[in-house]
Specification:
single chain, about 425 residues, alpha/beta, eight-stranded mixed beta sheet, five-stranded mixed beta sheet, 13 strands, about 35% helix, globular, binds adenosine-5'-diphosphate
């Protein structure tokens, strides 16, 4: 069976999944991650057969960086599962102004994606590192970059613009929006799970350790709570969400803080963690009797409600509201807190249904409420398969169009191309 490897690389973790491709259908075979890269590396992974699992720790210098993590994970995939991926799909946070869809990576695409590093300095380099490693070792293995920003690139000019001089906009200081792969997946599930609202106006709340919201009109993104970076919008585990830019000026000018110190404050020391003084994890806060924990949870729900108002205004009203990601999928209590702030829209929760989902609104609710689990990795696998199966899409969008995207090296699941070479990509995971 052909397989596709999905890679989602962060600063200290490498998440991976392997999908089998059979009859055009994708079937998850393996899911795993290496955490604590460079500090306390731990590889945990499991096959869908529930049998072949690994939970192994390493010395810090054994897995010092992302390439080393890929080697360890790859060796295990090959030994335990005989995985020989025909293609690799990557999550890449930033596609800049140019890329409005996934793209097959070649040298010129990689160069362009590197140029977006200033737009996402904490994430883009980590996302690109595995692509570069695989490309240098196995240049014939097709790799597809899937962007968190791409799903939002259809926003109107008004939505994308900050009211600052044009020259900054032209160099990329725009509202992008993130979590696009998650929203795209949820939008793809709506016709099945919630057919009455799928073609209508729906707000989706992706509430995880990173949190954002998206306004969907007939399944397309028209507005997002996030903007230039993933700092905007909702409060998150350790990020404050929307904050007056004057606060940053104050910290710079009056407190003498450096850019790096402010970055640390805004990315790692704010949000639920700062509000509660206890934890960034909603599970911990929900189990705490400390009033600060309750305050943090109320604050989060209030801000989701405020954002719902903003997005409902963008849509001119809503027919549906969807919860997804770690908090949205797993916390009935937080969903109940949030729906209280949606009552003015006519939303009414069914408390029994809220315990399980997917439909959680009462019969009389004017807004249909749902819980729809997201699956960003499956979305990447779908894109990777679709791109490789459709030669006319090998060339990317916008500035990425250089006309020289190379075809993949081999067919997947019978989707053949006469120019595809026969070189096996199995060595990726044995290196
Ligand atoms: P990410 O992918 O951004 O790391 P997730 O979507 O996995 O985030 O969400 C992680 C967060 O979800 C955790 O920090 C925790 O706050 C929350 N979470 C997970 N499970 C539960 C649960 N059962 N109840 C409440 N919150 C939960």
């Amino acid at each position: 069976m052909d397989t596709i490897l999905i890679v989602n690389a962060g600063s200290s973790s490498l998440k991976f999944q392997v999908y089998g491709v059979a009859g055009g259908a994708l079937n998850r075979l393996v899911k795993g991650q290496m955490d604590g890269i460079g500090t306390r590396p731990q590889l945990r992974a499991q096959g869908s057969d529930q049998k072949s699992a690994i939970d192994r720790t390493f010395a810090a210098d054994e897995v010092a960086d992302l390439p080393a993590a890929m080697q360890r994970a790859g060796a295990w995939l090959r030994e335990a599962h005989n995985v020989r991926p025909a293609a690799v799909g990557h999550r890449v946070v930033h596609g800049g102004p140019a890329f409005d869809r996934p793209i097959l990576v070649d040298d010129s695409v990689l160069t362009q994606l590197e140029q977006y590093t200033p737009l996402a300095p904490l994430h883009q380099p980590n996302n690109l590192a595995p692509i570069r490693v695989i490309r240098s070792l196995f240049p014939d293995t097709p790799q597809v970059a899937c962007f968190d920003t791409a799903f939002h690139r259809g926003h109107s000019a008004i939505v994308d613009r900050y009211a600052i001089p044009e020259r900054y906009h032209a160099e990329g200081v725009q509202r992008y929006g993130f979590h696009g792969l998650s929203y795209e997946f949820v939008a793809s599930r709506l016709p099945e799970v919630a057919p009455r609202i799928a073609g209508g106006r729906v707000v989706v709340a992706h509430l995880g350790s990173g949190a954002s919201m998206c306004a969907l009109a007939a399944g397309r993104s028209v507005e997002s709570s996030m903007g230039f970076t993933a700092l905007d919008g909702l409060p998150m585990g350790t990020r404050p969400g929307q904050i007056d830019a004057g606060v940053v000026l104050y910290l710079l000018g009056q407190k003498g803080m450096s850019g790096a110190e402010i970055e640390k404050l805004l990315y790692y020391e704010s949000g639920l963690k700062a509000l509660s003084g206890i934890s960034n994890d909603v599970r911990v806060l929900e189990n705490s009797a400390d009033p600060r924990a309750g305050f943090a949870l109320d604050y989060f729900a209030y801000r989701v409600g405020l954002e719902a108002g903003r997005l409902a205004a963008a849509l001119g009203g809503i027919e549906g509201f969807v919860f997804t990601a770690g908090i949205g999928e797993n916390s009935p209590a937080m969903r109940a807190r949030i729906v209280r702030h949606l009552a003015w829209l006519g939303a009414e929760l069914d408390p029994q249904a809220n315990a399980h989902g997917p439909a959680i609104s009462s019969p009389g609710s004017r807004v249909e409420l749902y819980v729809i689990p997201t699956d960003e990795e499956l979305m990447i696998a779908r894109h990777t398969l679709a791109l490789l199966a459709t030669p006319e899409r090998w060339i990317g969008a916008g500035e990425g169009r250089d006309g020289v995207s190379r075809p993949p090296n081999r067919a997947i699941d019978g989707h053949s191309s006469p120019s595809w070479s026969t070189r096996s990509s199995s060595t990726i995971i044995s290196s």
